[in-house]
Structure formats: C-alpha cells, structure tokens
Amino acid sequence: MLETSKVDYSTNIPNNVGLTDDQRVLKALEQWHPGYIDWWMSRGPEGFQTAEVYLRTAVSIDPKGWAKFDYVRMPEYRWGILLAPRQEDRRVNFGTHKGEKAWQEVPGEYRAMLRRLIVVQGDTEPASVEQQRHLGKTAPSLYDMRNLFQVNVEEGRHLWAMVYLLHKYFGKDGREEAEELLVRQSGDADKPRMLGAFNEATPDWLSFFMFTYFTDRDGKMQLESLAQSGFDPLSRTCRFMLTEEAHHMFVGETGVGRTIERTCEAIKEAGIEDPTDIAAVRKLGVIDLPTMQKKANLHFSLSLDLFGSEMSTNAANYYSSGLKGRFQETRIEDDHQLTNSYYPVSKLVDGKVKMVDEPALTAINMRLRDDYVADCAKGVERWNKVIEKAGVNFRLKLPHVAFHRHIGEFANVKASPEGGVVSDAEWAKKKDQWLPTKADGDFIESLMQPCWERGKFAPWIAAPKVGIDNKRGDFEYVKMHQG
Ligand code: BYC
C-alpha cells in the first residue's frame, strides 16, 4: 500500500507510509516494538494498564475526520506512523538552499545535525510519559484521568514518529539511537533525559496542567519550526504531530483555568476579601492564587530553558542548512536567509537587562522564544479573565525571561520575577515567595485525593464546560472495574 491519507491497519504498525512495501523498515520497527511495550508497561501510566479508556486514535490524516473515539486498553492502543500529505513541488523555504527542491532523503552533509534534532525531539516524548506516570492514582475526575492518558498515548505515538525517521533514514546508527530512547530515563542520575525540564518531577495535577500549558507549548513551537524543515519527511511528520498537540495545550489551559475558577468561587462563597490571605484560602480546600503564580513562575522558567541559548551557532547552522526554520517561516516577510539582518536580544549589560541588536541568524532561538512568550501571555490573560469575572482582585503574570534560568544569558545571575538582578542574599530571602516551596508542595499534595465517581470532581477543581467528544457530564471516561 502506497502513501495515502487513509491509515493501513493490515500491519502490526498502523501507518500511511506504505510500510508493507518497505520490509526493511517494517522489520526494524517490529523489532523495536516489544522494547517499546516493555517501556510502556514499566514506565507508562502506573496501575491503569488494564482499564478501558475512552481514547481518540488517529485513523486518517484528513483534517476533517482524522480521529475516532472508543474504549481502549492503553497497551493495545494502535500507535501508528502518520505523516501529513506530501505537498506537490515543495521547496526548501529558507537558508542557503532556499528555492531548491525539498529533500526526500537525508542530505549527507547534514546527517549528523539532522539526527541530533530528531533524537532531541524524540527524547522529550517518552520523558513526559515517565514524568506523569503516577498521576492517574490522584486524578480529580474520570474526565481528567482520560485526558492524562490521551496525552500519554499520543506522546508515545510521537516517539514512534521520531523512531520511524531514525529507522527509515539513518540505518545502523538510527537504530542505535532508537534503542537509546528507551534507555534514558527522566530524572535518572546516570542516564537522564537530554533536556533539563524533562528531568523534573511532575508531582501533582497542578504541575501537570502547568506542564501541558507551558512545556507542551515549547513542543508546539519546536514542532512548528521543524515542520518548516527542508527535509520533507520531518516536516510532514511534525505537521501531523501538531494536530494532536493542540489538545495537550487545551488540557493545560483549561486545567489551570478550572483550578482558578474553583478557587475564586470558594473565595467568594467564604466572603474572603484578600485573595493573598493564603492561610484563609487554603482552609477552604482550594489552591490559593499566589501559589498558582509560583507554579507558573517555575514551569515558565523551566520551559524557557528549552529554547537553548539566546545566541546559538547550533541554531544558526540548523537554519542556514534548511533543517529547522522559524515559527511560521513562510509568512515572514524577509529574505529567509538572514545574512545581513539583526534581531533585538535581551542581554546583561553592566548588571542590567537590556535589549541589544545581534545578528538575526545566531539569534534564532531568541526569536522563537519571543514568539513563545507572546503565545503564553494570551492564555494567562484568559486566566485573568476568569479571576476578573469572579470579582476577585488578583492578576497572574508571566515572570521576566531573566528569572530563574539555567541556560543562556541569565544562567549565572539571580533575577527577580520583574527582571531586576538581585544579590545571592536577596535571592535566598525572597525565593520562597517566587517559587513553590516544600510546604506549598505538601499542601497541594494533601488536596490530591482521587475522585473517580462518574460526573464528580475533586473539590479543588471546577467541572469542564463541555465533555470530550461531546459526551454528557456523567460519562464514564475510564472503566475502572477492569483495572
Ligand atoms: N537542557 O546552542 P545551544 C516537546 C544544550 S518539547 C539541557 O544554546 P541549541 C514536548 C544543547 O543541546 C520540544 N541541555 O542550544 C513537550 C547544546 O549541547 P551540545 C522538543 C541543553 O542547540 C512536552 C548546548 O546546550 N524539541 O516536544 O541552539 C511533552 C548548547 O546549546 C538545553 C526540541 O527541542 C536544555 N534545556 O538549542 C512532550 C527541538 N538547551 O550540542 C514533548 C529540537 C541547550 O553542545 N532541539 N542545551 O552537546 C533543538 O532544536 C535544540 O536542540 C534546542 C537547543 C532548542 C533544544
């Protein structure tokens, strides 16, 4: 079966890339499959492998009807390989090869760089599943539990997507890299995942929602940039991944939004005038807004680190080679080569944060990060609307990009959420007001009691406005009796 918009289910691995006619790759993937299932069973969602979950599965790449919903036991989920349709006469749209025909095979001179990009992207997918593996047990509803598992199986599919590229286009070393993706482990001291944020814990549901809001959004930006790639199979793979990714950010935005909504409702019911009276608000059994701000500070700053250094020759090389573009590259009006242009970069000058014009090519990471920050800010404003509508006097805001950084220009300074450079002593004094403390974590953990009754929600979070797949409020999203 050749490449089509329909997915071929006749092989063990559903696909629209003609795997039945590509026995070498089919065999390689079939050999990788048992290791993947072992990984899923030992490091995927803990305690729910036999539950029936109402999941969507990609069955087509037709934008109008690409998914179907049904009850599935997660280890039986049909993880498939799906690429967006090939575009007639697609070209390399940026860099020194601009205007040439897009590559259907790996250009030899860029092999190592391309493999590196695919491996980094691939590494994040299983990492997030590992980070979230304990959360099912404290799910605040069956609806939320189902969303968690949906995110998890799709991150699993995104791993498959990268492994396909490694097996199909990189021969022996591609196969070795694919094995390694199942060996590295989030938070492991000896074999950690590649990027910082993917070795952090996701200990509670607010962290999960913040992660899917902030860190999955880095995923969106990076996938958008890779979708511009002159290497066409990578572009098509990322384009389809983005279709699934939207739901993950929806889970994050609405999850935080519903947590805020419930808190504000409780504050109003109790007649509390000051929303920053943490002790009074916590007594109501909801998460206070200042703690939500601290969680946002943490997840935003960890996610900013995922963009790499502001000035990066790696990023410049990826761009010039036509491998990784900018966000919405083809909509930008410039020469798409950036050999003579500049971009304003926030830098430390004489102990102060200032904007400095730098060569646009080396500032590619900074530009993507700026696009990311603007995207993040929109959702924060929607959260503020929830607070405002409830009549509570509080506003959430994104911290400054210099705050709590471990990569790039600000890695070696301490900065306040407003962006002022502070001394070590001041940092030590204030950090507990800016970032979640152990006591904050303990309080949130105390609220994380499972609520698995149909149509019910844990008292710290509001019900969603609409169900998944338009199901009614008491729909049984996860059939636990099987578990
Ligand atoms: N942690 O030149 P530099 C997602 C390394 S998320 C640790 O400044 P570059 C998802 C860097 O590797 C999206 N190390 O950075 C979300 C380099 O090492 P080498 C994932 C870091 O290369 C939720 C050195 O520092 N996809 O999909 O321009 C759930 C100097 O680096 C970090 C991608 O990231 C860090 N944070 O940019 C599930 C796209 N940052 O080469 C999934 C592919 C940098 O000297 N990756 N380093 O050994 C890339 O485009 C780039 O690798 C990065 C880094 C943007 C990540």
| Distance from first to last alpha carbon | 37 Å
Residue-averaged pLDDT, rounded? 95
How many individual β-strands?
A: 7
Hetero compounds:
benzoyl coenzyme A
Based on helices, strands and strand pairing, what is the structural class?
Answer: mainly alpha
Q: What string gives the helices and strands in order?
A: HEEHHHHHHHHEEHEEHHE
The best one-word shape is globular
Low-confidence stretches at least 5 residues in length (pLDDT < 50)? none
Largest sheet: 3 strands, antiparallel
Strand content: 5-15%
Question: How much helicity do the residues have?
Answer: 40-55%
* Global Rg: 23 Å
Helix tally? 12
Q: Please state how the strands of the largest beta sheet are arranged side by side.
A: 2-1-7
Brief synopsis:
This protein is mostly helical and 483 residues long.
Describe this structure in words.
- The structure is a single chain.
- By secondary structure, this protein is mainly alpha-helical.
- It contains 12 helices and 7 strands.
- It has helices at residues 23-43, 111-131, 142-169, 171-180, 205-226, 232-270, 278-282, 289-304, 313-320, 364-389, 424-434, 438-447; strands spanning 52-58, 67-73, 342-349, 352-359, 414-415, 421-422, 478-479.
- The protein has a 3-stranded antiparallel sheet with strand order 2-1-7.
- Helix 3 runs antiparallel to helix 4 (171-180) and helix 3 (142-169) runs antiparallel to helix 6 (232-270).
- The mean pLDDT is 95.
- The structure holds benzoyl coenzyme A.
